[in-house]
Amino acid sequence: MALSGAIIATACVGSVYALRRRMLGRGEGRGRSLATLEPLPDVAALSPLVLRILGGNPGLYTLQGTNTYLVGSGESRILIDAGEGRPDYLPRLLSAMEGAGVRRVSDVLISHYHRDHTEGLIELRRHFGPSLRAWKVDPPYAGAHGPSASPVFAEVRPLQGGEDGSASLRVLCTPGHTPDHACFELREEGSVFTGDCVLGGSSAVFEDLHDYMTSLKSVLAVARGRLYPGHGPVIEDGAEGIRSYIGHREARGGEGRGSAEAGEEAREAQIVAALEQTWWCGLSPLGLVRRVYPRLPWTLRLAAAHNVAQHLHALQRQGRVARRAWLPLPRGYFRLIAMLASWWRLL
């Protein structure tokens, strides 16, 4: 049974991957051509306290590449995110440090456990030594992209950037994109390093809609200046950028009803109504998509099933729906749909 399930899952992933590539070749889907993205320099001094170093991993998912940031103005600075360990990243980082008069990296802050933000830590520790401190918020991540390397990371705490206290960072726990996501407020600027909560020039994906909307509002409450995203260019008007994100989710979730909460309630009411109409057999996330979004193009249904699965989890926690154990669905079906939808969006 386990082997056959693995074979089915592999076949599904392969089919999604092939179809995704064919669609991108025709210019369809959520992916953006790299040629349409704003060019970014490998290294850029964005402010007296912030130096951006690209991770050298451009792609449809990572846009121009993962943004890593040296923060502070002293000889010792904090590095936010570590890239995914591409061969040209460490030489690029060392060159940027030399040009800015930086002698050492005191700490590495990890915004969340996705490999394009964490894998570079292995090479960093080889160069700077195994004692290089790295920090990430709990909980350990075990989502669709694999488990976090929990022995590598510890609890995040507020840190000072630079030996002279030239920059102070405050940790903001912002789950949604992943359960362990964090943003970092640079108090001297009123700016925020947003990781993958808010991207520059693109929309973000998330694992939990409710948590994600709450996190956007938490960042909005402190954003007085720029946003430094995990991918893409700087967002100069941070508050307006976050409001745009919130408005985008409200429009998609609530069809213009005016609030994210109203949009979620309306969509969940539709899901419950569809399940009540099929009480004798129930519906899978894809089945609900066919009923709730009857005119949705088939090319978007897998991504919509990912969102429906999130609503089902929320409704199940509230006791409003229940999973029928006798349905011929593999164990972890909702999770499989979420994984496939994530790959669909990111491949």
TrEMBL record:
A Pfam family assignment: WHD_BLACT
GO process terms (BP): secondary metabolite biosynthetic process
Keyword Hydrolase applies: yes
Gene Ontology MF terms in the entry: hydrolase activity; metal ion binding
Keywords: Hydrolase, Metal-binding, Zinc
The Metallo-beta-lactamase domain, residue ranges: 65-231
Superkingdom in the source lineage: Eukaryota
The keyword Metal-binding is assigned to this record: yes
Gene3D superfamilies, alphabetized: Ribonuclease Z/Hydroxyacylglutathione hydrolase-like, Winged helix-like DNA-binding domain superfamily/Winged helix DNA-binding domain
Family label: Belongs to the metallo-beta-lactamase superfamily. Glyoxalase II family.
PANTHER family linked: ENDORIBONUCLEASE LACTB2
Protein name: Metallo-beta-lactamase domain-containing protein
Organism whose genome encodes this protein: Emiliania huxleyi (strain CCMP1516)
